[in-house]
Design brief:
Elements (H helix, E strand, L loop, with lengths): L12 E4 L2 E5 L6 H17 L4 E5 L8 H16 L3 E5 L3 H9 L8 E3 L2 H7 L2 E3 L10 E3 L1
Parallel strand pairs: 2-3, 3-4, 4-5
Antiparallel strand pairs: 1-2, 6-7
Helix pairs in contact: 1-2
Length: about 140
């Protein structure tokens, strides 16, 4: 696993094999969203990533700005050859999106980060007796 590479105190992006893992926080303004999009798309290319997991479990609300950003990120990533899964949406966020009529068109979701990683090809390795748990990407 590589170390995070946040740019200018931005959102860390971790690499697990050929999958990038990142997350969104509550405070995401236009400038930080653009910097995050630039960094993520650059990392998809430089790391030859085939998958991206964006964990939104810390977001308490998703407005039209964040919904649009997730849709655009998904489209850009697909154009660069990477599959994106947004994981960890809270029930209140899903309810709000529906009530506001916001659709995350083209955005694939997973219940949590582990389910998202499994969908991207990650598998928990069998644990030999007496050893600490190991995880791996295949």
């Amino acid at each position: 696993m590589s170390t995070p590479h946040p740019r200018d105190g931005g959102v860390p992006i971790l690499r697990l094999g050929d999958v990038l893992v990142t997350g969104l926080l509550n405070e995401l303004d236009d400038k930080s969203a653009m910097a995050f999009t630039d960094e993520l798309t650059e990392r998809i290319v430089s790391d030859a990533a085939r998958g991206v997991l964006i964990d939104i479990s810390r977001l308490e609300l998703v407005d039209s700005f964040v919904a649009r950003m997730l849709m655009e990120l998904t489209t850009m990533s697909r154009l660069l050859g990477a599959r994106v899964i947004v994981a960890g949406m809270r029930p209140a966020v899903a309810i709000t999106l529906v009530e506001l009529g916001l659709q995350l068109t083209g955005v694939e979701t997973a219940l949590n980060a582990e389910a998202g990683l499994v969908a991207l090809g990650w598998q928990r390795m069998p644990q030999p007796p007496g050893e600490a748990p190991r995880d791996s990407l295949r």
